[in-house]
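Page 37, continued from 36.
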């Protein structure tokens, strides 16, 4: 076997300084002599146990993966593919474009080629209906009805501050509702301390441990709303009466907030975005009796102002305080305001005078109307929450509601309609309970009652898909509930049933209202007659009547005495006159004699 050897060579100068090692005896540098006095300060410990761990430190991590639901969607393209500069709804534009295309040379050739293909497809459709339902009775809705109504807690979002604040308002992200904006504010009078935090937060519903963004207003936020057209923009109303808006792309500081003297004089309890081309218009209300319209592009002053004076005299001293607002995008000129006095004011923004802007008022609650919302399917009917009941109204009847719940043992604080089913709505109560009502099932009591927490609930908001409901408590906890499919799955012919129910109840209330009006008219006429009689009797019993009667009798007596005196005087004069005549006759006889 051949040994392979390779010699490495290197210059001595490249090795550096040479080390010279040598042996030498040890050297003593310091010698510390033991001190016996120090031994008295030590205590002997026997035995001495010391534990040593040589294994590696391990850490535990939890991962919550996002739940992704898949679904199949179809597209029904009704209108042809028009160019961007052509408006399909404009008949003149479409006719002009059609004439231009028909004059093209390739139009006839292309049409002839597509004609045979379309003829083949039409014959196929005539041969078999691919959309035919073979088992119409065996629908999903039948299985859904059999499922018992239930709800479960998904997540709980707590106020991260030491001093807990009330969850004053909730707003879902307009894009699939993956985020939740929560405003926190202490609403109890004179309970706010100097150390109370003013921040509100945006949470990811999949991560309850850490908020995504903290909004930092100058004053605590009572209401907070996402812009439906731009999900990065939020508008909020402060406890100080100011209005501001935030852009999540620019951080937690407010982009713009007008001066405090230009806003409301009381806390802003509700703010809603309007349906506009720019997507920058909103309006707000407060207990100062005003409704203000704003444009976030120019927030130096409100665009419009309305005083909630039901007498239509535009007097701020007798105006009703606004607590809740309602705006339906399909009715851009109408709006509704729930007031502290228990009335709901229907307004028309197109009105030029205060009398035209305040159209009507609906009175039925014994306290503040905390929530008002139109039914998303039947906009003439709307839901109100106040005192101990929830009421459903119709715009055609203004004196009473058409449907109402029983009086509960505790106050109701908030409520909303289901965006999927027209007969389902939700309410929250002061005892920490959320009630789910299904009017197609029963009216007398809630279909499902869920005890969320022991603290009073203050606000709730349903997601656009109707499956998740967020409810906030007075102690700053927001609970996310997931309801069973019976509350958000659309049932067959449900809209027909709901329409018939609302029409029936409206007709019934109209009959009762007309009958009550007739009874009031009869009572009014009867009371007026009794009033005339009572007035005559009351006049006889009054001191003035007695004095007048005594004066009348006194003067009548005087007149009678005067007449009697005159008669006696006339009789005396007649007697004296006859005596004088007799004496004259005697004198004449004597003269003749």
């Amino acid at each position: 076997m051949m040994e392979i050897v390779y010699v490495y060579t290197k210059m001595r100068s490249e090795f550096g300084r040479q080390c010279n090692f040598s042996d030498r005896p040890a050297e003593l540098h310091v010698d510390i002599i033991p001190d016996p006095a120090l031994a008295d300060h030590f205590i002997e410990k026997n035995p001495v146990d010391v534990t040593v761990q040589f294994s590696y430190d391990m850490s535990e991590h939890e991962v919550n993966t996002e739940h992704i639901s898949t679904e199949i969607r179809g597209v029904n393209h009704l209108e042809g593919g028009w160019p961007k500069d052509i408006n399909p709804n404009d008949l003149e534009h479409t006719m002009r474009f059609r004439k231009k295309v028909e004059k093209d040379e390739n139009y006839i050739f292309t049409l002839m080629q597509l004609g045979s293909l379309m003829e083949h497809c039409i014959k196929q459709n005539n041969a078999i209906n691919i959309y035919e339902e073979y088992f119409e009775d065996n629908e999903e809705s039948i299985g859904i009805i059999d499922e018992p109504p239930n709800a479960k807690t998904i997540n709980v979002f707590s106020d991260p501050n030491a001093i807990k604040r009330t969850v004053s308002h909730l707003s879902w992200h307009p894009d699939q509702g993956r985020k939740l904006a929560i405003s926190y504010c202490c609403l109890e009078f004179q309970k706010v301390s100097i150390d109370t935090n003013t921040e509100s937060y945006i949470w990811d519903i999949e991560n309850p441990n850490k908020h995504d963004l903290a909004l930092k207003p100058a004053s605590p936020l009572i209401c907070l709303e996402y812009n439906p057209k731009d999900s990065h923009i939020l508008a909020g109303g402060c406890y100080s009466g100011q209005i501001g808006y935030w852009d999540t792309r620019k951080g937690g500081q407010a982009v713009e907030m007008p001066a405090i003297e230009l806003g409301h004089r009381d806390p802003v309890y509700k703010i809603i975005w309007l349906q506009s081309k720019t997507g920058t218009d909103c309006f707000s209300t407060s207990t100062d009796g005003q409704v203000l319209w704003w444009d976030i592009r120019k927030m130096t002053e409100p665009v419009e102002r309305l005083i909630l004076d039901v007498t239509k005299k535009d007097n701020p001293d007798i105006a009703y305080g606004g607590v809740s607002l309602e705006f339906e995008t399909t009715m851009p000129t109408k709006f509704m305001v729930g007031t502290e006095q228990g009335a709901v004011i229907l307004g028309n923004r197109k009105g030029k005078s205060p009398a035209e802007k305040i159209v009507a008022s609906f009175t039925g609650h014994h306290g503040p109307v905390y929530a008002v919302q139109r039914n998303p399917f039947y906009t003439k009917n709307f839901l109100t929450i106040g005192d101990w009941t929830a009421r459903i109204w119709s715009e055609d009847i203004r004196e009473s509601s058409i449907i109402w719940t029983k009086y509960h043992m505790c106050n109701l604080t908030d409520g909303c309609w289901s965006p999927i089913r027209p007969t389902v709505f939700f309410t929250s109560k002061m005892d920490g309970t959320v009630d789910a009502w299904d009017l197609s099932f029963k009216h007398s009591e809630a279909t499902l009652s869920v005890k969320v927490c022991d603290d009073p609930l203050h606000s709730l908001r349903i997601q656009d898909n109707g499956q998740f409901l967020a409810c906030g408590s007075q102690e700053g906890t927001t609970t996310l509930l997931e309801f069973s499919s019976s509350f958000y799955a659309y049932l067959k012919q449900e809209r027909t049933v709901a329409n018939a129910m609302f029409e029936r109840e409206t007709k019934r209330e109209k009959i009762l209202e007309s009958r009550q009006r007739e009874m009031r008219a009869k009572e009014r006429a009867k009371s007026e007659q009794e009033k005339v009689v009572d007035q005559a009797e009351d006049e006889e019993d009054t001191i003035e009547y007695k004095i007048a009667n005594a004066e009348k009798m006194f003067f009548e007596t005087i007149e009678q005495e005067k007449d009697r005196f005159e008669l006696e005087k006339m009789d005396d004069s007649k007697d004296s006159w006859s005596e004088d005549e007799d004496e004259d006759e005697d004198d004449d006889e004597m003269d003749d004699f």
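The first strand starts at residue 151 and ends at 158. Flag for discussion at group meeting. Residues 138-144 have pLDDT under 50 and may be disordered.
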